[in-house]
Amino acid sequence: AQYPLAVIPFATSIVLVIGSPNAEPAQPRALIGGHVVSALVGLDVLHLTGPHAWAAAAAVGLSILAMYATGTFPPPAGINPLLVVSGNLPWMFLLAPVLAGALILTAFCLVWHRGVRRQRWPQRWL
Question: Is the pTM value of this prediction over 0.90?
Answer without folding.
Answer: yes
